[in-house]
Amino acid sequence: MKEYDYSRQYNRTNEKWGGKVISIITLLLTGYMAVTHFYELISSNLVKSMENIRSGNEPLSMTYYEPQIEPATLNLICGILFSILFLVSLYAVARKQIQLLYIFLTVGILICIVYFLFSQTILY
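Above: the chain's sequence. Below: its structure in token form.
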């Protein structure tokens, strides 16, 4: 029976594919969430109401705008967080730092969970 050669460097194909899969998942998650948050911010009722102020169709009292400010603020904060995370993930992919990508994927998933909890429990 042939003995195992411990001095030989064996190649693992899983390490190459694992890094690619993690980088693709991280970039897709952070990029998609950043785009959707900015899209929701642009298409929110607050932006439409602010456009109607010039024409005089909307009231100027602050109580009219208060329910619209919280979701728009949350979308702005999450959009900025996810875009920063996307840019830093691109940097980690360019530098081929897989450990950083694992951290960024974990942080992205945690931000998604926190956002969904806030949007479903606190805002509505």
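Helices lie at 13-42, 45-53, 62-95, 98-122.
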